[in-house]
Amino acid sequence: MQKFLSAHDVADIESLVNKALFYKSNPLSDSSLGAGKRIGCIFMNPSMRTRLSTQIAAKNLGIEPILLNAGSEGWALEFEDDAIMNGTTVEHIKDAARVFGQYFDILAVRAFPAFKNREDDYSEHIMKQIVKYSGLPVVSLESATLHPLQSLADIITMTEKKPAGRPKVVLTWAPHIKSIPHCVANSFAQWVNKWDKADFVITHPEGYDLDSSFTSGAQITHNQKEALEGADFVYVKNWSSYNDYGAVLNTDTSWMLTNAHLENTNDAKVMHCLPVRRNIELSGEVLDGPNSIVTHQAGNRVWAAQAVLSEILKA
Ligand code: CP
Prior knowledge:
Layout: H1 13-25, E1 38-43, H2 49-60, E2 64-68, H3 70-73, E3 77-78, E4 91-92, H4 93-103, E5 106-110, H5 118-122, H6 125-134, E6 138-140, H7 148-161, E7 168-173, H8 183-195, E8 199-203, H9 212-215, E9 219-221, H10 224-228, E10 233-237, E11 269-271, H11 284-287, H12 294-314
Parallel strand pairs: 1-2, 1-5, 3-4, 5-6, 7-8, 7-10, 8-9, 10-11
Bound molecules: phosphoric acid mono(formamide)ester.
Protein backbone atom coordinates (compact mmCIF):
# COMPACT_ATOMS: atom_id res chain seq x y z
CA MET A 1 0.00 0.00 0.00
CA GLN A 2 1.54 3.32 -1.12
CA LYS A 3 -0.88 5.64 0.72
CA PHE A 4 -4.05 5.46 2.79
CA LEU A 5 -6.37 8.34 2.02
CA SER A 6 -9.62 6.53 1.21
CA ALA A 7 -11.20 3.12 0.59
CA HIS A 8 -9.87 3.37 -2.97
CA ASP A 9 -6.35 2.74 -1.62
CA VAL A 10 -7.38 -0.69 -0.32
CA ALA A 11 -7.38 -3.61 -2.77
CA ASP A 12 -9.30 -5.98 -0.49
CA ILE A 13 -11.11 -4.69 2.61
CA GLU A 14 -11.79 -8.17 3.99
CA SER A 15 -8.13 -9.13 3.94
CA LEU A 16 -7.17 -5.82 5.64
CA VAL A 17 -9.81 -6.49 8.32
CA ASN A 18 -8.43 -10.00 8.83
CA LYS A 19 -4.95 -8.56 9.21
CA ALA A 20 -6.21 -6.09 11.83
CA LEU A 21 -7.95 -8.90 13.72
CA PHE A 22 -4.73 -10.95 13.59
CA TYR A 23 -2.87 -8.03 15.18
CA LYS A 24 -5.62 -7.71 17.79
CA SER A 25 -4.77 -11.27 18.92
CA ASN A 26 -1.02 -10.92 18.29
CA PRO A 27 -0.12 -7.23 18.85
CA LEU A 28 3.68 -7.71 18.86
CA SER A 29 3.98 -10.36 16.15
CA ASP A 30 5.66 -7.85 13.79
CA SER A 31 7.43 -5.78 16.45
CA SER A 32 10.61 -5.46 14.36
CA LEU A 33 8.96 -4.70 11.01
CA GLY A 34 9.37 -0.94 11.41
CA ALA A 35 12.73 -0.93 13.22
CA GLY A 36 14.70 2.21 12.35
CA LYS A 37 11.64 3.90 10.76
CA ARG A 38 9.91 7.08 11.91
CA ILE A 39 6.33 8.22 11.37
CA GLY A 40 5.50 11.91 11.61
CA CYS A 41 2.01 12.43 13.03
CA ILE A 42 0.97 15.96 12.07
CA PHE A 43 -2.19 17.30 13.69
CA MET A 44 -3.68 20.50 12.33
CA ASN A 45 -6.77 19.87 14.52
CA PRO A 46 -7.53 18.32 17.93
CA SER A 47 -7.67 14.56 18.48
CA MET A 48 -7.68 11.98 21.24
CA ARG A 49 -8.38 8.53 19.74
CA THR A 50 -6.52 9.01 16.46
CA ARG A 51 -3.50 10.51 18.19
CA LEU A 52 -3.21 7.72 20.78
CA SER A 53 -4.15 4.71 18.64
CA THR A 54 -1.77 5.66 15.82
CA GLN A 55 1.14 5.95 18.25
CA ILE A 56 0.32 2.61 19.88
CA ALA A 57 0.02 0.93 16.47
CA ALA A 58 3.34 2.41 15.33
CA LYS A 59 5.12 1.26 18.50
CA ASN A 60 3.67 -2.25 18.15
CA LEU A 61 5.43 -2.42 14.76
CA GLY A 62 8.69 -0.96 16.07
CA ILE A 63 8.16 2.41 14.31
CA GLU A 64 9.08 5.57 16.25
CA PRO A 65 6.15 8.03 16.22
CA ILE A 66 6.92 11.75 16.42
CA LEU A 67 4.02 14.15 16.94
CA LEU A 68 3.62 17.74 15.84
CA ASN A 69 0.52 19.67 16.87
CA ALA A 70 0.90 21.85 13.81
CA GLY A 71 -2.45 23.57 14.32
CA SER A 72 -1.63 24.87 17.79
CA GLU A 73 2.16 24.74 18.13
CA GLY A 74 3.58 24.96 14.60
CA TRP A 75 4.04 27.96 12.30
CA ALA A 76 0.78 29.16 10.75
CA LEU A 77 0.59 27.31 7.43
CA GLU A 78 -0.37 28.71 4.03
CA PHE A 79 -2.18 26.42 1.56
CA GLU A 80 -2.92 28.75 -1.40
CA ASP A 81 -0.65 27.78 -4.31
CA ASP A 82 0.64 31.21 -5.35
CA ALA A 83 -0.06 33.10 -2.14
CA ILE A 84 1.69 36.39 -1.46
CA MET A 85 2.32 35.69 2.20
CA ASN A 86 1.90 39.18 3.64
CA GLY A 87 -0.78 38.13 6.16
CA THR A 88 -0.86 35.84 9.17
CA THR A 89 0.57 32.68 7.57
CA VAL A 90 4.29 32.06 8.05
CA GLU A 91 5.18 28.83 6.23
CA HIS A 92 3.84 27.35 3.01
CA ILE A 93 2.65 23.74 3.11
CA LYS A 94 4.93 23.01 0.13
CA ASP A 95 8.00 23.95 2.18
CA ALA A 96 6.77 22.24 5.34
CA ALA A 97 5.92 19.01 3.48
CA ARG A 98 9.35 18.94 1.82
CA VAL A 99 10.94 19.19 5.27
CA PHE A 100 8.70 16.39 6.61
CA GLY A 101 10.07 14.34 3.72
CA GLN A 102 13.59 14.77 5.15
CA TYR A 103 12.68 13.66 8.66
CA PHE A 104 10.25 10.77 8.30
CA ASP A 105 9.62 7.48 6.49
CA ILE A 106 5.81 7.71 6.74
CA LEU A 107 3.64 10.79 7.22
CA ALA A 108 0.24 10.76 8.94
CA VAL A 109 -1.81 13.95 8.78
CA ARG A 110 -5.05 15.33 10.19
CA ALA A 111 -6.41 18.37 8.33
CA PHE A 112 -10.11 19.19 8.71
CA PRO A 113 -12.11 21.18 6.13
CA ALA A 114 -11.84 24.96 6.30
CA PHE A 115 -15.62 25.19 5.57
CA LYS A 116 -15.08 28.39 3.55
CA ASN A 117 -15.60 26.89 0.12
CA ARG A 118 -16.99 23.44 -0.72
CA GLU A 119 -15.00 23.01 -3.92
CA ASP A 120 -11.72 23.73 -2.11
CA ASP A 121 -12.49 21.28 0.71
CA TYR A 122 -13.79 18.57 -1.61
CA SER A 123 -10.72 18.88 -3.86
CA GLU A 124 -8.64 17.63 -0.88
CA HIS A 125 -6.10 20.30 -1.80
CA ILE A 126 -4.19 20.05 1.50
CA MET A 127 -3.72 16.25 1.43
CA LYS A 128 -2.78 16.39 -2.25
CA GLN A 129 -0.09 18.99 -1.56
CA ILE A 130 1.28 16.95 1.35
CA VAL A 131 1.46 13.80 -0.80
CA LYS A 132 3.08 15.71 -3.67
CA TYR A 133 5.71 17.68 -1.75
CA SER A 134 6.65 15.25 1.04
CA GLY A 135 7.36 12.36 -1.34
CA LEU A 136 6.35 10.00 1.50
CA PRO A 137 3.60 7.41 1.94
CA VAL A 138 0.81 9.47 3.55
CA VAL A 139 -1.86 8.16 5.93
CA SER A 140 -4.98 10.27 6.48
CA LEU A 141 -5.78 10.85 10.13
CA GLU A 142 -8.97 12.59 8.87
CA SER A 143 -9.04 14.95 5.93
CA ALA A 144 -11.47 17.53 4.60
CA THR A 145 -13.89 14.86 3.35
CA LEU A 146 -12.90 11.43 4.73
CA HIS A 147 -11.77 9.55 7.85
CA PRO A 148 -10.55 6.19 6.53
CA LEU A 149 -8.86 4.86 9.71
CA GLN A 150 -12.16 5.40 11.53
CA SER A 151 -14.08 3.59 8.80
CA LEU A 152 -11.68 0.64 8.80
CA ALA A 153 -12.15 0.36 12.59
CA ASP A 154 -15.93 0.52 12.01
CA ILE A 155 -15.81 -2.37 9.51
CA ILE A 156 -13.57 -4.38 11.87
CA THR A 157 -16.12 -3.80 14.65
CA MET A 158 -19.08 -4.87 12.52
CA THR A 159 -17.17 -7.95 11.34
CA GLU A 160 -16.68 -8.98 14.97
CA LYS A 161 -20.20 -8.16 16.16
CA LYS A 162 -22.43 -9.03 13.23
CA PRO A 163 -25.05 -11.75 13.45
CA ALA A 164 -25.03 -14.65 10.98
CA GLY A 165 -26.05 -13.59 7.49
CA ARG A 166 -26.10 -10.17 5.87
CA PRO A 167 -26.61 -7.44 8.48
CA LYS A 168 -28.75 -4.33 8.07
CA VAL A 169 -26.58 -1.27 8.71
CA VAL A 170 -28.22 2.14 9.24
CA LEU A 171 -26.34 5.43 9.25
CA THR A 172 -28.58 7.96 10.98
CA TRP A 173 -28.13 11.71 11.13
CA ALA A 174 -28.30 13.12 14.67
CA PRO A 175 -28.79 16.66 15.97
CA HIS A 176 -25.83 18.83 17.00
CA ILE A 177 -25.36 22.43 18.10
CA LYS A 178 -22.42 23.11 15.77
CA SER A 179 -21.54 22.85 12.10
CA ILE A 180 -19.86 19.45 11.81
CA PRO A 181 -17.80 18.13 8.84
CA HIS A 182 -19.06 15.32 6.60
CA CYS A 183 -15.88 13.23 6.85
CA VAL A 184 -17.06 10.39 9.10
CA ALA A 185 -20.40 10.00 7.32
CA ASN A 186 -18.87 10.21 3.82
CA SER A 187 -16.17 7.76 4.76
CA PHE A 188 -18.50 5.28 6.48
CA ALA A 189 -20.72 5.29 3.38
CA GLN A 190 -17.77 4.84 1.04
CA TRP A 191 -16.38 1.90 3.06
CA VAL A 192 -19.69 0.10 3.66
CA ASN A 193 -20.51 0.37 -0.05
CA LYS A 194 -17.10 -1.00 -1.03
CA TRP A 195 -17.25 -3.72 1.68
CA ASP A 196 -20.58 -4.84 0.15
CA LYS A 197 -21.47 -7.20 3.00
CA ALA A 198 -24.49 -5.35 4.41
CA ASP A 199 -27.87 -3.93 3.43
CA PHE A 200 -27.08 -0.25 3.87
CA VAL A 201 -29.60 2.50 4.65
CA ILE A 202 -28.87 6.19 5.30
CA THR A 203 -31.51 8.31 7.04
CA HIS A 204 -31.44 12.07 7.54
CA PRO A 205 -33.78 15.06 7.48
CA GLU A 206 -34.39 16.98 4.26
CA GLY A 207 -31.45 19.15 3.25
CA TYR A 208 -28.80 16.78 4.62
CA ASP A 209 -28.01 14.72 1.50
CA LEU A 210 -24.34 13.81 1.40
CA ASP A 211 -22.22 13.85 -1.76
CA SER A 212 -23.66 11.03 -3.89
CA SER A 213 -20.18 9.93 -4.94
CA PHE A 214 -19.88 8.44 -1.44
CA THR A 215 -23.46 7.32 -0.77
CA SER A 216 -24.37 5.83 -4.15
CA GLY A 217 -25.41 2.21 -3.50
CA ALA A 218 -27.14 2.95 -0.18
CA GLN A 219 -30.90 3.29 0.26
CA ILE A 220 -31.63 6.86 1.44
CA THR A 221 -34.75 7.90 3.37
CA HIS A 222 -36.01 10.84 5.44
CA ASN A 223 -38.05 8.41 7.57
CA GLN A 224 -35.82 7.46 10.50
CA LYS A 225 -38.40 5.15 12.10
CA GLU A 226 -38.77 3.12 8.91
CA ALA A 227 -34.99 3.02 8.42
CA LEU A 228 -34.38 1.64 11.91
CA GLU A 229 -36.78 -1.29 11.51
CA GLY A 230 -34.82 -4.56 11.70
CA ALA A 231 -31.45 -2.80 11.94
CA ASP A 232 -28.49 -4.82 13.25
CA PHE A 233 -26.19 -1.81 13.49
CA VAL A 234 -27.12 1.85 13.94
CA TYR A 235 -24.29 4.30 13.29
CA VAL A 236 -25.16 7.67 14.81
CA LYS A 237 -23.49 10.81 13.44
CA ASN A 238 -24.22 14.44 12.88
CA TRP A 239 -23.15 16.24 9.74
CA SER A 240 -23.90 19.70 8.42
CA SER A 241 -25.52 20.36 5.05
CA TYR A 242 -23.56 19.50 1.89
CA ASN A 243 -25.78 21.44 -0.54
CA ASP A 244 -26.05 24.52 1.70
CA TYR A 245 -22.42 23.94 2.60
CA GLY A 246 -21.77 23.79 6.34
CA ALA A 247 -25.23 25.06 7.32
CA VAL A 248 -27.14 23.72 10.35
CA LEU A 249 -30.67 23.40 8.93
CA ASN A 250 -32.33 21.24 11.55
CA THR A 251 -32.06 20.79 15.33
CA ASP A 252 -35.09 18.48 15.73
CA THR A 253 -34.33 16.58 18.95
CA SER A 254 -36.58 13.67 17.93
CA TRP A 255 -33.68 12.49 15.70
CA MET A 256 -31.52 11.83 18.82
CA LEU A 257 -31.32 8.06 19.36
CA THR A 258 -32.91 6.85 22.61
CA ASN A 259 -33.84 3.37 23.82
CA ALA A 260 -37.31 3.91 22.35
CA HIS A 261 -35.75 4.27 18.88
CA LEU A 262 -34.21 0.80 19.27
CA GLU A 263 -37.52 -1.00 19.93
CA ASN A 264 -38.14 -2.09 16.33
CA THR A 265 -34.50 -2.85 15.54
CA ASN A 266 -32.94 -6.31 15.69
CA ASP A 267 -31.54 -5.42 19.13
CA ALA A 268 -29.19 -3.16 17.18
CA LYS A 269 -25.65 -2.45 18.21
CA VAL A 270 -25.13 1.31 18.39
CA MET A 271 -21.96 2.88 16.99
CA HIS A 272 -20.43 6.37 17.06
CA CYS A 273 -16.89 7.49 16.23
CA LEU A 274 -16.60 9.66 19.38
CA PRO A 275 -16.28 12.26 20.74
CA VAL A 276 -20.04 12.51 21.26
CA ARG A 277 -22.17 15.23 22.84
CA ARG A 278 -24.32 13.26 25.28
CA ASN A 279 -28.05 13.95 25.25
CA ILE A 280 -27.66 16.19 22.19
CA GLU A 281 -26.34 13.82 19.53
CA LEU A 282 -26.90 10.50 21.32
CA SER A 283 -28.73 9.80 24.59
CA GLY A 284 -26.82 8.87 27.72
CA GLU A 285 -29.17 5.91 28.24
CA VAL A 286 -28.07 4.36 24.93
CA LEU A 287 -24.39 5.18 25.47
CA ASP A 288 -24.42 3.60 28.94
CA GLY A 289 -26.70 0.72 27.93
CA PRO A 290 -26.07 -2.79 26.58
CA ASN A 291 -26.55 -1.86 22.91
CA SER A 292 -23.67 0.60 22.78
CA ILE A 293 -20.39 -0.69 21.29
CA VAL A 294 -18.71 2.72 20.98
CA THR A 295 -15.85 1.90 23.36
CA HIS A 296 -15.13 -1.41 21.62
CA GLN A 297 -15.21 0.50 18.32
CA ALA A 298 -12.68 3.05 19.62
CA GLY A 299 -10.44 0.20 20.83
CA ASN A 300 -10.33 -1.15 17.28
CA ARG A 301 -8.71 2.08 16.08
CA VAL A 302 -5.35 0.59 17.20
CA TRP A 303 -5.72 -2.52 15.03
CA ALA A 304 -6.94 -0.55 12.04
CA ALA A 305 -3.88 1.70 12.22
CA GLN A 306 -1.53 -1.24 12.80
CA ALA A 307 -2.85 -3.12 9.75
CA VAL A 308 -2.47 -0.03 7.54
CA LEU A 309 1.04 0.85 8.76
CA SER A 310 2.10 -2.77 8.30
CA GLU A 311 0.84 -2.76 4.68
CA ILE A 312 2.74 0.46 4.02
CA LEU A 313 5.95 -0.91 5.52
CA LYS A 314 5.67 -4.07 3.41
CA ALA A 315 5.05 -2.17 0.13
N1 CP B 1 -12.95 9.35 16.24
C1 CP B 1 -11.86 10.15 16.25
O1 CP B 1 -11.22 10.38 15.23
O2 CP B 1 -11.53 10.62 17.48
P1 CP B 1 -10.48 11.79 17.74
O3 CP B 1 -11.00 13.02 17.02
O4 CP B 1 -10.43 11.97 19.23
O5 CP B 1 -9.16 11.37 17.18
